[in-house]
Write a structure and sequence with these properties.
5 helices, 6-stranded mixed beta sheet, alpha+beta
């Protein structure tokens, strides 16, 4: 079909699933979790927030009151995890990480104090886990703390292979609202809380 101005309609048979990609639609894992948490709050399902990074500001430039610029700051204490809040009366706490690797998740990406923090939350009855996105594969997994600890106690590897995630973790499928429905998985894992 010919359109005015010379615009031609693309032949539908020339568009295949191979050349159409919606990989993450430009959003990072953190952005998707933030919009998912916003959705959960909006429907009164859960109250989960991104934790602020603990920093101390030491130098600020004040050209005017509404244009203050932080010039120097430092981390006051090591941060624990990225997100925490409440879901069905239970405390929830988790770390979110991305990797470009197609084969494994490097343990250098998660710090020992973060693992200890997740272990303590789990030990005291909270819901603790790690969400890991393999960006190149467009696969996102929720790994419960008990499974993370099991891997650390039984392996000398410096990375967790993708096969471990595929076997032990829960894949989070992309959705519309919420973008990443990780609480659906928590309901399956924890049961009727």
């Amino acid at each position: 079909m010919n359109y005015p101005g010379g615009i031609k309609k693309q032949n539908e048979s020339s568009v295949t699933a191979k050349n159409v990609s919606y990989k993450n639609r430009g959003m990072t894992l953190e952005a998707e979790l933030n919009t998912s948490n916003e959705y959960y709050r909006g429907i009164d399902k859960a109250y989960i927030y991104k934790k602020p990074t603990p920093i101390k500001i030491t130098k600020v430039d004040y050209p005017s009151r509404d244009k203050a610029v932080i010039k120097e700051a430092f981390f006051t204490i090591p941060s624990t995890t990225d997100y925490n809040g409440l879901y069905k009366g239970k405390y929830i706490d988790f770390e979110a990480k991305e990797t470009k690797s197609k084969t494994s998740f490097s343990l250098e990406n998660i710090h020992e104090h973060q693992i200890k923090h997740l272990e303590n939350i789990d030990k005291h009855g909270g819901i603790a886990f790690v969400i890991v996105r393999f960006t190149t594969l467009n696969e996102t997994y929720l790994l419960m703390t008990k499974d993370l600890l099991e891997f650390l106690q039984t392996s000398n590897r410096k990375s967790i292979p993708i096969d471990f995630f595929r076997e032990k973790a829960y894949q989070i499928k992309d959705g519309y609202n919420p973008r990443l429905d990780y609480l659906k998985i928590i309901d399956q894992v924890i049961g009727g809380i």
